[in-house]
């Protein structure tokens, strides 16, 4: 269908009589640079424009049909309730007919319409988004990635040359904005970081491929493409038109959401989402590539916003706003490349002493990664986090393996600039001293936060615990007390004690 005919079709689709069902008048039209979306009340209809941007090609009827069907199938992964069917549009005596039996002149994607105020972006803007919902999003995205396809072809997109090509292209397309929203120094330093990352860390990319973390992902996972509809989080509008944009490391998707929240000045929500995701997947090693993808996603937002500065149809005031927005994203992309001093925080205390609650509170304030021994133990044992572990999960050998893995992950991430909280009992001197010695050897600052509360409080907490991955019960407290080692003089300088039966915020501020 020619560009001249498309507006004729859209004019017809704005009429209530075009549809075989009742509509809410007037039919509303939303137009983007690649599609027309018509809102009828119960249903939304998307018509792809006849455009070719190189990375996106809808220039023929055959391609538009193909990508309509591709969009339908791919979005059923994250939002099956929203994506319904692809319908042909034919012409009968010069009139456009939806779902007609004649020769198709266009194709349309039919979707369930939902109110805009259920978008996570809208919920955030109106103060209705919660930390608990961000934790649930972490679980939803973890399951989405667990079910995502992979193959030799898909994994090949994780090779350095493939990843680097897309990032280098961003730099090439934004040199014209240096001296405008982008500074020369920021440009040079951001590019130097990614160049060095690719040159020095090729083995990291190889391990991501070998461990099957390159999958058919969403590709555009920001808050405007996530909604909470009918009490369920749905991921929609994934990238259907370009394989390199969706055959990516799972951390590429995760980074988009985290970056979006940090750009909105809400790192606490990003931290809640990220920690839940990595705990569910056990992919703490993937955090090593996170800074690269955080910078990439911020840079892409800067680039796309910068393009508005070249559009003669954009009003001057809008261009000024776009310039400021682009500048903020360029700065954020640069900030992600800056080195940070990592550190380790060991939680210590009996079951029910408030270690995990305190660790979560600290993580939100420090933007720290929390690694819980309960999660590490179950990942090592190959059981779901929600499943109760048997005796084989709590042998001395498995406990040692769990603490070894905890420390290995903590040192790896802290040495790369993360603040890492290891959430475990750390009730034995040898376990604590092993961490202290390793941190000292790696020149990583370390602190031990010892949580305690009256025994009656511990028992009550454990008896009331519901829906947590920890398996400990109140009857284990006596044996835990008997097996715990007091802090030695060598450990005391690292230890700060916390009475979790009292408000913890003020105590943590002093720490």
From TrEMBL:
Pathway assigned to this chain's UniProt record: Carbohydrate acid metabolism
Pfam families: AAA_33 (PF13671)
EC number: 2.7.1.12
Enzyme class, broadest EC rank: transferase
Superkingdom: Bacteria
Keywords, ordered alphabetically: ATP-binding, Kinase, Nucleotide-binding, Transferase
UniProt record similarity statement: Belongs to the gluconokinase GntK/GntV family.
Protein name: gluconokinase
The organism's taxonomic lineage, starting at the top: Bacteria, Bacillati, Cyanobacteriota, Cyanophyceae, Chroococcidiopsidales
């Amino acid at each position: 269908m020619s560009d001249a005919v498309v507006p004729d079709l859209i004019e017809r689709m704005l009429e209530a009589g075009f549809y075989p069902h009742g509509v809410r008048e007037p039919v509303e039209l939303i137009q983007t640079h690649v599609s027309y979306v018509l809102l009828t009340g119960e249903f939304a209809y998307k018509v792809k424009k006849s455009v070719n941007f190189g990375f996106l090609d809808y220039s023929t009827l055959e391609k538009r049909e193909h990508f309509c069907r591709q969009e339908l199938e791919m979005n059923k992964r994250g939002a099956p309730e929203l994506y319904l069917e692809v319908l042909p549009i034919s012409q009968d005596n010069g009139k456009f007919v939806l779902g007609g039996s004649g020769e198709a002149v266009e194709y349309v994607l039919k979707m369930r319409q939902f109110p805009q105020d259920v978008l996570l972006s809208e919920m955030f803007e109106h103060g209705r988004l919660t930390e608990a919902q961000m934790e649930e999003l972490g679980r939803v995205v973890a399951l989405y990635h667990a079910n995502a396809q992979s193959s030799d072809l898909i994994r090949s997109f994780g090779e350095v040359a493939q990843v680097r090509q897309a990032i280098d292209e961003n730099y090439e397309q934004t040199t014209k904005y240096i001296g405008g929203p982008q500074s020369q120094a920021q440009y040079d330093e951001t590019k130097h970081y990614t160049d060095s990352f690719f040159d020095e860390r090729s083995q990291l990319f190889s391990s991501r491929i070998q461990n099957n973390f390159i999958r058919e992902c969403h590709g555009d996972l920001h808050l405007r493409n996530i909604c909470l509809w009918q009490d369920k989080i749905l991921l929609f509008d994934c990238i259907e038109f370009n394989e390199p944009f969706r055959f990516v490391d799972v951390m590429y998707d995760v980074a988009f959401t985290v970056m979006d929240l940090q750009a909105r000045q809400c790192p606490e929500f990003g931290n809640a989402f990220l920690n839940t995701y990595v705990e569910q997947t056990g992919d703490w090693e993937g955090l090593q590539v996170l800074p690269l993808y955080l910078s990439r996603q911020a840079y892409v937002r800067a680039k796309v916003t910068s393009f508005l500065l070249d559009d003669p149809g954009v009003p001057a005031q809008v261009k000024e706003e776009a310039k400021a927005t682009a500048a903020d994203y360029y700065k954020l992309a640069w900030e992600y490349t800056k080195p940070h001093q990592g550190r380790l925080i060991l939680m210590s205390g009996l079951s029910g002493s408030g270690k995990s609650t305190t660790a979560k509170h600290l993580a939100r304030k420090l933007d720290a990664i929390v690694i819980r021994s309960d999660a590490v133990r179950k990942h090592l044992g190959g059981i779901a986090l929600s499943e109760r572990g048997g005796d084989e999960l709590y042998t001395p050998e498995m406990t040692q393996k769990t603490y070894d893995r905890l420390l290995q992950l903590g040192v790896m991430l802290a040495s790369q600039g993360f603040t890492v909280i290891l959430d475990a009992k750390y009730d034995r001197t040898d376990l604590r001293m092993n961490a202290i010695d390793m941190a000292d050897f790696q020149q990583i600052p370390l602190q031990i936060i010892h949580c305690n509360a009256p025994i009656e409080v511990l028992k009550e907490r454990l008896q009331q615990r519901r829906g947590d991955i920890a398996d400990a019960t109140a009857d284990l407290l006596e044996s835990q007390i008997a097996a715990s080692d007091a802090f030695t003089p060598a450990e005391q300088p690292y230890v700060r004690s916390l009475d979790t039966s009292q408000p913890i915020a003020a105590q943590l501020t002093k720490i």
